[in-house]
Write a structure and sequence with these properties.
The chain has a domain of about 120 residues: Orthogonal Bundle (Helicase, Ruva Protein, domain 3). About 45% of the residues lie in helices and about 5% in strands. It contains 15 helices and 7 strands.
Length: about 375
C-alpha cells in the first residue's frame, strides 16, 4: 500500500527501546493492497447506516463538497446519483486487527521475514529487473532512487502488478467516509478520486483495494493526483497499466518525501554482548508512528557506532553517514544500522516489518 494513515500512540520505556511492535506490522493494513484471496469484485448493497447522516443525505453532502472544491458537474453526475454503499467494505474495515491497547507483546520479525523475503519474490524481482533494465536505470538516474528498492516496493505492494484490487474506488471511499470512523480522510480521498475523472482517468481505471489504494503503486487518490509520474514517455501517468509509470511514480513518491541520492537503506551489523542500549536511546518523541520510531536509537555517525563496538557484516558506510540502530528481534539477533532513506520507506508504509522487508528484498534482487 501506499502510505499508512493509521498511527497508534505508544511511548516506549527504555527497557523496550528496541523491542516494541511497530504499528501495522505483520497485520492486514487498512490502506495496504489486498491479499490474493480478497481480490473479489465489489458488490453494491445497501449497508446499515452507521454515520450521523442517512446515505441519501450523505451522498448529497459529497456532491455539494465536490462542487465547492472545483469538481466538474459532469464528474459529479457520472458518480453520485447511482452510488451505493458496500457492506463488504464496512465488514473489512471493522475486521482490521488493532491489537490490545498497552499490549507489549513483541512479534518476532524472523517468521515474517521467512514469509515475505522469499526466493519467489526475489527471483521475480530479478526477472522484472532484466525485463525493464534500461527503463529502470533511466528512472534511477532521474530520481536518484535505487532501482532495486523501487522493484521491492512494487513486488510488496502488488506482487509485481498481479494484485491491485478491483473494488470501485468511489463505492469503497464513499462507504468508508459515510461510515464515519475516519470521515475526513476518506471523504477527501473521495473528492480526489472525482478530480481524477476531470484529469482524464475513466471510472474503469479507478479500481483498487477496499480501502481506496489503487494501481500498481497502491496510491490513494490524493497521491495519484500529486505524485503519479510518466515513466514510459507518453506524457500520461498510468499507474494501472504501465510498469514504467509505476516505477517512476514510486521513485517520485520517495523523492518528494526526502529520499537522499546515493545512500543505501541500511546494513546488518554485529552488536557487542554487553552493549549499553540505554546510552543510545532516542531522546525525543517521534512526530509520527511512535510504535515504529521508538524502536530505533538516536542518530550517530558510522564512526561513532564503530567506536561503540558496532561492526558491519559485510559492506559499510563512510564515517560521516548518520545512522540509527534497529534490533527487530532484540538483543543477540540480527541488528541493522539504517539511514534516513529507511525512514522514507516508512513513509510509504509506517511499519518496521514493511520497511525492513523492502530493504532485504532490494538487496537480494541486486545481488
Amino acid at each position: 500500500m501506499t502510505v499508512t494513515f493509521l498511527m497508534r500512540s505508544f511511548l516506549a520505556s527504555a527497557s523496550f527501546l528496541f523491542a516494541l511492535p511497530a504499528c501495522g506490522q505483520d497485520a492486514t493494513d487498512p490502506l495496504a493492497p489486498l491479499d490474493e484471496g480478497e481480490t473479489i469484485a465489489s458488490t453494491a448493497t445497501i449497508a446499515v447506516p452507521t454515520g450521523d447522516l442517512g446515505w441519501a443525505d450523505y451522498r448529497n453532502h459529497l456532491a455539494r463538497r465536490a462542487a465547492a472544491e472545483g469538481v466538474s458537474q459532469r464528474a459529479i453526475d457520472s458518480v453520485l446519483p447511482t452510488l451505493q454503499p458496500n457492506d463488504r467494505v464496512i465488514r473489512l474495515d471493522r475486521s482490521q486487527p488493532g491489537g490490545t491497547p498497552g499490549d507489549n507483546v513483541i512479534p518476532p520479525f524472523a517468521p515474517y521475514q521467512r514469509r515475505h523475503v522469499t526466493r519467489d519474490i526475489i527471483q521475480r524481482g530479478k526477472a522484472e529487473a532484466r525485463q525493464h533494465w534500461t527503463k529502470l536505470h533511466e528512472i534511477q538516474d532521474r530520481y536518484g532512487v535505487d532501482k532495486d528498492v523501487i522493484l521491492a516496493i512494487y513486488g510488496k505492494e502488488t506482487s509485481y502488478g498481479r494484485i491491485t484490487g478491483n473494488f470501485d474506488l468511489f463505492e469503497a471511499l464513499g462507504t468508508l467516509a459515510w461510515e464515519g470512523r475516519r470521515r475526513e480522510l476518506f471523504e477527501s480521498e473521495f473528492i480526489a478520486a472525482l478530480k481524477l475523472l476531470d484529469k482524464g482517468y475513466t471510472r474503469s481505471h479507478l479500481k483498487g483495494s477496499w480501502a481506496g489504494a489503487a494501481g500498481k503503486t497502491q496510491f490513494m487518490p490524493t497521491n495519484i493526483l500529486a505524485l503519479a509520474a510518466d515513466g514510459d514517455g507518453d506524457n500520461y501517468a498510468d499507474i494501472w497499466n504501465s510498469e514504467p509509470d509505476a516505477f517512476a511514480s514510486i521513485a517520485n513518491y520517495l523523492v518528494q518525501k526526502g529520499w537522499i541520492r546515493g545512500i543505501d537503506w541500511g546494513i546488518p551489523v554485529n552488536v557487542p554482548y554487553n552493549f549499553d542500549r540505554n546510552s543510545v536511546r532516542r531522546l525525543t518523541e517521534p512526530e509520527r508512528c511512535p510504535r515504529v520510531f521508538n524502536r530505533h536509537s538516536r542518530w550517530l555517525t558510522m564512526a561513532e557506532w564503530r567506536a561503540l563496538g558496532i561492526s558491519p557484516v559485510g559492506s559499510s558506510f563512510s564515517d560521516g553517514v548518520e545512522l540509527k540502530l534497529f534490533e527487530p528481534d532484540g538483543p543477540g539477533e540480527t541488528a541493522y544500522l539504517v539511514t534516513r532513506n529507511y525512514d522514507m520507506i516508512l513513509d510509504y508504509n509506517c511499519s518496521n516489518f514493511y520497511a525492513l522487508t523492502i530493504g532485504l528484498v532490494a538487496d537480494a534482487i541486486e545481488r
